[in-house]
TrEMBL record:
Naturally occurring in which organism (per UniProt): Paenibacillus dendritiformis C454
Domain NadR/Ttd14 AAA, chain residue ranges per copy: 12-177
Protein name (database record): NadR/Ttd14 AAA domain-containing protein
Pfam families documented for this protein: AAA_28 (PF13521)
Gene3D superfamilies in alphabetical order: P-loop containing nucleotide triphosphate hydrolases (3.40.50.300)
Length: 200
């Protein structure tokens, strides 16, 4: 693997397969005062379904992947004004798009691999494991639980390949999950209050 751009400590990814509780966790953390960047995948699916477009995982997965990369890069650039002393959480990161490409068995473009290597986040990534008891499908999430498990495994391997360190978030009530993430993230920003950027 080629040399990567430096990790950005204030950009913290929370990822995992579909239906593992990511968005619920991030909303709880937002309630506690920690902002997050929403996942682009659902936004794309909703827009395409509204406009009767074909950039959908079940219609044109390659087109969907390419738009996902474009929107994820846009989200990353928009977040760069964030104070580096304050944590900003991401509901998935650019490497998720690379993992998705592997999942659909599509060759990853040079642009995609380059983006995954060069748009960097905190080296520590929080990943939520498949959790069948809470798993639900809906209008935008059509994968069955088996597909959710496969997604998790590919994401784990992809982030490892990109030299991130994975921390599995335990299957706990959402408040305890938020406590776990915040406890383990604080250790990466020594001397800085991750909520407001002030020195302790």
């Amino acid at each position: 693997m080629t040399e990567c751009t430096l990790f950005r400590n204030d950009f913290v990814i929370i990822t995992g397969g579909p239906g593992a509780g990511k968005t619920t966790l991030l909303k709880e953390m937002q309630r506690q005062g920690y902002p997050y960047v929403p996942e682009v995948a659902r936004e794309i699916i909703q827009a395409e379904m509204t406009s009767n477009g074909d950039a959908l995982p079940w219609r044109n997965a390659i087109k969907y992947r390419d738009i996902m990369l474009e929107k994820s890069i846009e989200s990353y650039h928009a977040a760069q004004s964030n104070d580096p002393g304050r944590l900003l959480f991401f509901d998935r990161g650019i490497p998720d798009t690379l993992a998705y490409s592997y999942l659909i068995d599509a060759p990853a473009s040079e642009e995609l691999e380059s983006a995954a290597r060069n748009y960097r986040y905190n080296k520590q990534v929080f990943i939520l494991p498949p959790w069948e008891e809470i798993y639900q499908t809906d209008r935008e999430r059509v994968q069955d639980f088996e597909e959710a498990q496969a997604t998790y495994e590919i994401m784990y391997e992809t982030y490892q390949w990109l030299e991130y360190e994975l921390m599995v978030v335990p299957k706990l009530p959402v408040e305890q999950r938020a406590e776990f993430v915040l406890k383990h993230t604080r250790s990466g920003l020594t001397g800085v209050d991750p909520k407001n950027g002030n020195r302790k």
